[in-house]
Sequence to fold (558 residues):
Amino acid sequence: MRTKDSYNKRLKNLDSERSGFIDYWRELSDNILSSRGRFLTSDRNKGHKRNTKQFNNSARLAVRTLASGMMAGITSPARPWFRLQTPDPKLNEVGAVKEWLNDVEVLMREVYSQSNVYNTLHTVYSELAVFGTATMGIYEDYENVLWCKQYTAGSYLLAMNGRSAVDTLYREYELTVAQLVTEFGIENVSQSVKGQFETGNTEAWHKVVHAIELNDGRDNTNPLAKHKKYRSVYYEADSDKENKTSFLRESGYNEFPILAPRWDVTGEDVYATDCPAMTALGDVKALQLLERRKYQAVDKITNPPMQAPSNLKAQVEGQGMVAGDIVYVDDTSAGGIRSLYDYRPDLNAIQAMIQETENRIDKAFYVDLFLMLANSDRKQITAREISERHEEKLLMLGPVLERLHTELLDPLIDRTFAMMQRAGILPEPPEELRDTELRIEYVSVLAQAQRLVAVGAIERTAQFVGELSAVFPNARHKFDAEQAIDEYGAALGLSPRVIRSDEAVAEIIAQEQQAMAQQQQAEQMAQMGQVAQQASQTDTSGKNALTDMMKMAGMNNG
Fold:
C-alpha cells in the first residue's frame, strides 16, 4: 500500500523539475497577466494590486484578443466545431450511421453548453498564451454530466509517460477546517482538524495534497473506485505523523481527467518552452520602460525643475532636480524664476518607438490574424480575397492547432463521450457501428482554414471538367460529382443532414427513372391511341396508300 511518504517523495521530485520555470512564470505574470498564477499555497483571496510593473496594457489586451480569437476559431459555442466519424469513408455515408453520429454530436454540444466547459476553455487559452502550459480537470457531475476546473500556473505539478503524454498531476492547496469537514467528512480528517472543528476554529487553514497518477498496482477485478486505471488521492500535508496510510479520500478515474495542452515543447521537457508571451516578453519590458520615459519627458515639459536667485530661497521652499523643484543660484543675471534647462524631447519619436514595440507584441500574439478584417484599410474586399487572406494568416497557427487537437480537444471529447455513455444518455447505435471505433474530425474555423486548399482544388477541377466536356462530352464521366459534393461539404463542415447519403441518392435516382419510364410508356400509349383513332377515321372505299397496304396485308394473310 502506498503511504504519504511515497507521495511526498514524488511531490518533492516533481517540484524540483518545475522549479526552473517558477521565476519565469512569475515574471510573465507580473509583466503581462498579473491576475493569473499562484506560486505559494497561501496565494488566495489577496486583493492587493499585482500589476505595478504594467504602465502600458497592450500585452494584456493582446492576450484577451488571442484568447477570444482562439475561443471563437477553435471551440466556438455558437457553431459546431467537431464531428464524429468512422475510419471507413463508405460507412460514414450510410444514412443510419450519419444520423446517429449527428445526434451524438448534438447531445455533446448540449452537454458543453449546459456545463462550464466553455468558460474554462477561455481561461485555458489565456494561460496557454502567457505561460505556454495550461491545465484543466474534467470531472463527472450528476446534474450536468460533467464540470470543469482550471488550475493556474504554479499551483500544479505535471509528469509524462514514455510517449511524452502528461499522465500525472500533483497539486498543493489550502482548505479551511470547515471546507475539509464538508468535503471529506469529519470521520476522514485528522485529529487536529477534528479538534479545531469541535472547538469552533473552523476558519483555520490546512495544506492539502491531491495526486492523480497511473494506478500501476490496481486490481483489475476489483470494482472499487480506487482500483480504476488512474488513482486519485487526497491527504493533509501536515498530518503525516498521525497516520502514514490515512487519506482524506482514495478514488480513481477510468480516463485521465486532466487536460494539459502546451504551446510548444523542447525535447522531453514537461512544461512548454515557447509561447506568445515568452516571445514578446522582451518587447513587453521595453514597452514599459518607453512608457515611463515618455511620461517623465512630458512631466519635465509641463512641470520642469526651475532655477531662481538665491535671495528668493526664504520665500520658496524645496530644492532638487526633479520636475517641479527649484534650484537656487547666485547668478543674479538669471533674472526671476525660470526653467533650469532647455529640454525639448522629441515626443513623436518616442511615440513612434512605442507604436513599433506594440506592433511587435501584437504580432507575437497573432492579433493581426484575429483582427485582420477589422484592421483592414480597405472598405471593399471580395469574398475570394477574404478566403485567401484567411488561409494565409490562419495557417500560421497550424502547428499549434495540431497540438491542441492532440493534447486538449481529443481527450476532452473522448472523456465526455465515455462519461455520457456511463450516464446512459447516448442513443442506441445502429448495427453497422457495432465494435467500430470512432474518430474525431474538427470543423472549426481554424481547422477549416487548413482545408481551404482542398476546397479550391475541387472548385477548379469542377470548372475545368465543365469547360472540357463542352468539347469532349465523354470527359464528364471522369468526374464523380456526387463524391465531390461529399468532400466539399466535409471540408466546409456542413451538417450531415444537409447532404443526402448515397443510399438516399440512389433511391431518388431509382424513383426518377421509374417515373420517367412510366411517363414514356404513357406517351407511347397515347401516341398509339392517336394512330388508331386516325386509322379508324380514314376512308377505305377509294384507292389510297392505306387501301394498298390493306390489300397487301390481305394477300400476305391469304
